[in-house]
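Appendix B.2, paired examples.
Example (i):
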Amino acid sequence: LVAAHLYSAGGILFRGFDVGGAEAFREFAAGFGDPLLNYEFGSTPRSNVTKGVYTSTEYPAHQSIPLHNEQAYTLDWPMKIWFYSMIAAQTGGETPIADSREIYRRIPARIRDRFIEKKLMYVRNYGNGLDVEWSQVFNTEDESVVEAYCRAHNIECEWKDDGELRTRQICQAISRHPVTHDTVWFNQAHLFHISNLQPEVRETLLDVVDEEDLPRNVYYGDGS
């Protein structure tokens, strides 16, 4: 019944459930039959609370995070995501949701087709005080482990002269749901592209590093 509603509506709100803490939440979520995944190749700082359960993105309270598909900047992503508010925010705290099927339908076909044809190339530069350290993203201090992970997940990796890491990965712009077969807008181009930054932040970054060394950016799959 839950799955039927989820595939139809796209999301379900359980209200008034006294789950009783992170470990009880983990057991509740795992009870629906899907394994809880580790946060691998993450793009934002999060802390592991208990097995398969992480804090939300650890950003300052005054910052906002735009609507996005979870880990759509990779070729591997969770099919379901659970949210649990153990301590409700006193102000703000809203999580924006939308139907990615409808987003796809509303984007003009000429724009959709360009994204579908070219795909997207996400470029990330780790560390240097500007973004998450590669050791945190890959959960290791061993460069060979990073390289093996990248090979296994079709990620191009490059160790720069300063010892930091750059990765590139070509990913989908849209996806098709494996159960409903609906076509959905499925990417994080709007989050990764430098135009998403506030003008003063963008200008400061470009004063400090070249475009190729930006913490994150996105191009069409052909590099344009």
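Example (ii):
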Amino acid sequence: MSHGTLFLLNAGLLALTGRWLAHFRRRDALGLGLVVGLLALVRFTEAWNVLVPALWGLTSLAALRSRGQQLWQHKGQVALAAGVAGALLLGQLLYWHHYGGAWHIDTYPDEHFDFAHPHLREGLFSIRKGWLTYSPLMGLALLGIGALRGPARAALPVLLALLPLVLWVTYSWWDWGYGGSFGARPLISLYPLLSLPLAALLERAFRRRWTGVLLGVLLVLGVALNQLQTWQYYRGILHCCDMTAAWYQERFLWLDWPPAPPKP
């Protein structure tokens, strides 16, 4: 599975974006091109992450004008990053052509997207594979988008553009449950970006005692639920593909499969 690799690359992309926009060093531009190119190689739709350096920090018209001037001033570095990413993608095309005889090979034949009918409700909330059903702490990360302040607010335009796009494309795939897996595995690559609003919500909540206690309780419960359900998936208590509300309710606190018989 590519999800761990994509998580690492997206975390690296955030670090490189901040460093490049702060100092405009050639080595950071090179790193950005390398990471974006690798993201697109691992899963082509991850090319949308070019929006991270493109939109980072554009929270006002003044910031937009300043960014345009900066990019023009450092246009050589922009070209370097684009060239590195393009070279990596060209390598993939050459590989396909050399070994497969075609410039593009469909690695998912007879599978498709249906962008007119995305399964957003099922993908987010269903018992079968709902993202927020099995990873409820990500709901706190979504709430934290409104709490972004200070330097972390630079992520706001990226989140507002990227999050709807990723959810729409992800849940437009014909098999929106993505086969045998726990929860929504294709969204793991979003977690480095979503860690910022989650941290913003935590920082804001812990300014007051009662909100800090409340959020702390929610965090403990969320982690406990996630660990329980991860164990249940490992033991086969949660079905990999076709969970139903009846099964979920019946097996909610089971720790083994089949459950141990009651003691006489």
